[in-house]
DNA sequence: AGATGCTCCGACTTTTTG
DNA sequence: CAAAAAGTCGGAGCATCT
């Protein structure tokens, strides 16, 4: 099966550099507001049959599936996922794929074949409430986790790449993807200067090529890297990045997105720095 | 105030390409 | 086989809604 999601070429039409500047309706006209309907029409079997017959279209779009309506709520011990139940053949009422009018389905590609990697998270929380997915039986401790998981089953994706049109469920996924278009590679190997878009790629490179094993405890947070998605600049702190963007990319969406609280703090620091610099330059005269 | 949604990021993983 | 790209989940912070 050809790899359908690899970015091969840049869409010459897409000239918009920053997707964040787009309103929701433009960056994702395929977005379907939270509603149960779209998912009730979409059984697992439909999903699978579509997957198997999927064209070479890219990952296509998911949309908000409608949250808790699709979950079964129960205790962890009494509510084990029942995959066979969830994977049962589609209800007869289920429409032919593509027959129900789902806005944006024209853009929504077919989901790739179901992956084998299934992580069941219900096993360790017997006493806790578990929200389980009606489609695949996965369980989640938090409803918001289930809600997000449900997006994986949906064909409509909210976040579209302005370069190639590929859709993603998560803004971060889109951000990560866009780096393949912009060429920004924040993670550099200090030994050979080779750069990577993802930290795991760098760590894999370090281990396999240079035999350098990163010493991180399980789930230990690495030093966060603050990346300017406009030019690839990386800074050690958010303040550092803010200062950079403020001076180098005044119109950047990053500045608009920075929360007011944080922006106020950073702006105060920035102002004091500027004042100090001005004072120093005056003293030099 | 609590619930919920959105966003962000790390982490682990798989799949495909060259 | 290494690298690239992507799928997905855990967790957290913030904003908005009820």
Please mark out the parts with pLDDT under 50 across 5 or more consecutive residues, or reply none.
Answer: 1-127
Strand content: 5-15%
What distance separates the N and C termini?
69 Å
Sum up the overall morphology in one term: extended
List the total number of helices. Answer: 10
Strand arrangement within the widest β-sheet reads 1-2-3
Largest sheet descriptor: 3 strands, antiparallel
Structural class: alpha+beta
The ordered H/E elements are: HHHEHEEHEEHEEHEEHHH
Average pLDDT rating: 57
Number of strands: 9
Whole-angstrom Rg: 23 Å
Could you explain how this protein is built, in words?
The chain has 285 residues and is of the alpha+beta class. Among the domains are: 120-156; 226-277, no CATH class. The protein is built from 10 helices and 9 strands. It has helices at residues 24-27, 37-40, 44-52, 83-86, 143-153, 171-182, 199-209, 238-248, 253-257, 260-284, and strands spanning 71-75, 129-133, 139-140, 159-160, 167-168, 187-188, 195-196, 226-227, 234-235. The strands form 4 sheets. It has a 3-stranded antiparallel sheet with strand order 1-2-3, with helices on one face. Strands 4-5 form a two-stranded antiparallel ribbon. Strands 6-7 form a two-stranded antiparallel sheet. A hairpin with a 6-residue loop joins strand 6 and strand 7 (195-196). The longest helix is centred in the C-terminal third of the chain and has 25 residues, at 260-284. The model is unreliable at 1-127 (pLDDT under 50). The structure holds a DNA duplex (18 and 18 nucleotides).
